[in-house]
Structures are given as structure tokens and as C-alpha cells.
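A.,

Following up on our hallway conversation. C-alpha cells first:
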């Protein structure tokens, strides 16, 4: 957990720099160069044009690079559920309920502000996301002022949040489906689990089959990043998956295939995949933007959902569990510190931009600008307010 948090927090700083650089470029004399880079056409051909993949660089990053990110997310979810902070109902209850509240309330706020606009309603899921890299980066910069238990709580909430985002993308942001490609993807996923059941420990075969599944999912109409999650679920937590990870370690088996893949991918995702995603997606021209622009339904719904909705949803759901089900706040944390972390959950940057891109595909640049403004303003404000609360809060008294 310490290694994971350290990697995510450092990556969050790089992510912030990449997003800031994109914002500066898109509002400078270099804006046309930035736009040409983002829209640069990249083409791959296989076997005498048997398969041709031709996309702008923006879509290669959002479809393929982010599939690697979702693969890592899938690995993290599987490990935490089988052998980590979510391995028991008692451990998982507080972050799970908090994460659910943190998805429902922001969505309701967005819907309330955009209920009269059918196109705008497509973005209801944008403010439901939490960016674990950014949020953990803020916590790590605060150092010992924040109890370790709050960092673990935030990590668990964000992981469950990512699982919710995966379900939302699969259920609500899917285009017309191709049955043959779906069947082919299903066959590939079946083969992945055959590899698992036969005890395959090498990551190579999983990666090859996973790439084939990615192509099939890309052509099926379901968003291609979900292939990364499906592949991750097949990676064994230990040699044969008949024992839990702790038992494998006690027998001296060392790192599992899942851990090996997770540790190998973390630096690439933290310092390449997510910064590149931020760079190609965060660029937005502020020319002509005013207070009136921010007050429109989409950016206002996103920003309020991230700042107020996340804080109310996460804290409110957790409070109900503490009040009526006997749950306890994270050890060593005061109520104000806990609320500060709940506010930090409103930093939705990466996943919010990603869902926003899916929600308004083909709707034009105006919608894209509104989404980016809402996400950037909401995430920045949530980060600042959460930091202020954490700096002003005192640790819970010890007995």
C-alpha cells in the first residue's frame, strides 16, 4: 500500500504539470501546433490491409493508452478485493458506501441543473469520478499532517469509484453493437480464463490475447478500454488462485503474476499514460470564456457535482454508516480531517474528462469546452478546499 500511494502521488504531480502545459499551449501562439499534434493521424496496417486502424493521436491515447490504465485499475481492484483493503466486508463497508454516495449525489446535482436539455443530460456521470493520482498527490504533499488511515480510505474509495465508472461506461456509453465482434471478444476473454485455470504464470500470453480482445472490443461498439479490465481479471493473484495471496507469501512463493504486472506498469501509467492523456485532453482555449460560460448547465453541473456533490455524498453516506451501523471513522482522524478527504474526492480530473469525451462524442467543440471548463474548475476548487480543511484540522484525540 505504501509503494502504491508513493507511486500514485508522484504521478499526480506530473499529471498536474502535463495538464497545465496543455492549458498554457492552447492559449498561446503555439495553439495551432498543439492542435495539429492532438489531431495527428496515426495508422496501423496488418496483413495486406486485413486490418487497418487509422485514428487521430487523441483517440489512440483515449482508446489504447487508456486501456493500459484500465488494465492497471482492474489489477488493483482484483488485488484489493481478494487480499487487500477490500478483502472483508468490515474493511470494505465504509469506503464502499461512501463511494456509492459520492457517485449518486453528484449525478443528481448535475441532472437537476440539466434536466431540460436532453443532450446535456448525457454528461450526468462526469462528476461521479475521483482521480486517485491527483487526490493522493495532494495528501502526500501535506505529509504527516494527514493520518495514514485517511490515505488508505481515499485509495479504497477511489478504487471502488473506478469500478463504478467501469460499470457506467459499459452500461451507458456504448455505441451500436457488432454481434460478431462481441462474440470474438467473448471468445478471447474465455481463452484468458483458460490460461488462468491452467496455471499460466507468464504475463506474455495474457498480453497477446488481451491485445486481440482489445481490437475486437474496439470494433464491437463497446469502449475499447474495457478490454483492459477484462484482461486484468484473468491475471492470477498467485500461481493457481486456489489460495489467497497471504498464504502464497507465507509459503515463500514471492511476488504473484498480478503483483509483477502491477508493479511493472505503475511507473509507465503514472509517468507516461496519464500525463499524455492529460496533455491531449486538457487543452482548452479560454478565448471568449466568461463567468456566464461557467454558469451554463454543463460546466456548472460538473463543477457543483464535483465540489458539493462529492463532499456531501461521500461524507453523508459515511456518516449514516457511522451513526446507524456502528462503523468507525479512520483511526487518528478528526471529523474535519475526514470531511477534508471527502472534499478531495471531488478531484475528478482524469476519469471525468474521459467520461466527458464519451458523453459528448460528435456533439461539437462547444460541448467539449464546457466539459473541460467544468472538470478543471471543479477539480481545482475541490483540491483547494480539501487542502484548506486538512491544514486546519487537528488529529483526533487518542485515549
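Then the amino acids I'd put at each of the 399 positions:
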Amino acid at each position: 500500500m505504501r509503494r502504491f500511494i508513493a507511486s500514485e502521488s508522484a504521478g499526480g504531480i506530473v499529471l498536474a504539470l502535463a495538464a497545465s502545459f496543455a492549458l498554457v499551449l492552447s492559449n498561446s501562439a503555439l495553439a495551432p501546433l498543439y492542435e495539429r499534434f492532438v489531431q495527428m493521424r496515426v495508422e496501423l496496417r496488418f496483413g495486406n490491409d486485413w486490418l487497418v486502424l487509422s485514428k487521430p493521436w487523441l483517440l489512440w491515447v483515449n482508446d489504447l493508452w487508456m486501456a493500459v490504465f484500465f488494465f492497471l485499475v482492474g489489477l488493483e481492484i482484483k488485488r484489493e478485493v481478494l487480499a487487500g483493503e477490500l478483502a472483508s466486508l468490515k474493511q470494505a463497508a465504509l469506503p464502499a458506501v461512501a463511494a456509492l454516495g459520492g457517485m449518486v449525489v453528484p449525478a443528481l446535482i448535475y441532472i437537476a441543473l440539466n434536466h431540460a436539455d436532453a443532450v446535456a443530460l448525457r454528461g450526468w456521470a462526469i462528476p461521479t469520478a475521483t482521480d486517485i493520482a491527483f487526490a493522493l498527490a495532494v495528501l502526500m504533499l501535506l505529509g504527516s499532517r494527514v493520518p495514514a488511515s485517511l490515505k488508505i480510505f481515499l485509495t479504497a474509495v477511489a478504487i471502488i469509484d473506478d469500478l463504478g465508472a467501469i460499470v457506467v461506461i459499459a452500461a451507458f456509453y456504448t455505441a451500436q453493437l457488432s454481434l460478431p465482434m462481441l462474440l470474438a471478444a467473448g471468445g478471447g476473454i474465455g481463452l484468458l480464463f483458460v490460461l488462468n485455470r491452467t496455471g499460466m504464470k507468464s504475463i506474455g500470453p495474457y498480453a497477446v490475447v488481451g491485445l486481440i480482445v482489445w481490437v475486437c472490443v474496439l470494433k464491437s461498439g463497446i469502449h475499447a478500454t474495457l478490454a483492459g479490465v477484462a484482461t486484468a481479471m484473468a491475471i492470477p493473484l498467485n500461481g493457481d488462485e486456489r489460495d489467497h495471496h497471504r498464504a502464497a507469501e507465507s509459503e515463500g512463493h514471492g511476488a504473484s503474476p498480478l503483483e509483477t504486472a502491477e508493479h511493472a506498469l505503475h511507473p509507465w501509467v503514472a509517468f507516461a499514460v496519464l500525463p499524455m492523456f492529460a496533455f491531449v485532453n486538457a487543452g482548452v482555449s479560454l478565448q471568449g470564456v466568461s463567468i456566464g460560460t461557467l454558469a451554463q448547465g454543463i460546466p456548472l453541473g460538473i463543477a457543483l457535482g464535483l465540489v458539493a456533490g462529492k463532499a456531501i455524498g461521500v461524507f453523508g453516506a459515511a456518516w449514516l454508516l457511522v451513526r446507524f451501523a456502528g462503523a468507525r471513522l479512520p483511526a487518528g482522524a478528526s471529523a474535519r480531517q475526514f470531511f477534508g478527504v471527502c472534499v478531495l474526492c471531488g478531484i475528478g480530473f482524469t476519469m471525468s474528462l474521459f467520461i466527458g469525451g464519451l458523453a459528448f462524442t460528435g456533439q461539437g467543440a462547444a460541448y467539449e469546452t464546457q466539459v473541460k471548463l467544468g472538470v478543471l474548475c471543479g477539480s481545482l476548487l475541490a483540491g483547494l478546499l480539501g487542502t484548506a480543511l486538512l491544514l486546519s484540522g487537528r488529529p483526533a484525540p487518542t485515549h
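Confidence is low (pLDDT under 50) at residues 239-253. Curious whether your intuition agrees with the design.

B.
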